[in-house]
Amino acid sequence: MKAAMQWGKTALLLVALTAAPLSQMWSAGAFAAEPAGAAQQAAVNINTASAAELAEALVGVGPAKAQAIVAYREASGPFADKTQLLEVKGIGEAILEQNSDNISL
How far does Cα 4 stand from its chain's mean position? Predict the structure, then answer.
């Protein structure tokens, strides 16, 4: 029984590998680090983006935190650097670190 199950798994693997040559799988992105179709996120300007744009572009930032960023910007003026986001309620080191490459001024 165990041998039959192992044979079934091996046969399934062989069918999968022979269904498309490896070169086709490689060019189709089957071995890519990111899933096929995953887009590189464009940087979002924290001094000009709307709350909706911020919520969409920043990981861990939903509508409420995005609105807090806009409110802080309106009350205090434009952000001088990315780390100033830490002064916004709800934005911590983890969120800043996750988004650092996607933030522009």
Answer: 42
Taking only the tens place, the pLDDT of each residue in 54-90 is: 999 999 999 999 999 999 999 999 999 999 999 999 9
Helical residues (DSSP H) of the chain, grouped into ranges: 2-19, 22-27, 51-57, 63-76, 93-99
Please give the Cα distance from 39 to 42 (Å, whole number): 9
Q: What does pTM read for this prediction?
A: 0.62
Is the distance from CB of 47 to CB of 78 less than 8 angstroms? yes
The answer to whether residue 93 scores a pLDDT higher than 90 is yes
DSSP element (H, E) containing 44: strand 44-45
Domains of the chain: 44-104 (1.10.150.280)
Q: Is 103 helix (H, G, I), strand (E, B) or coil?
A: strand
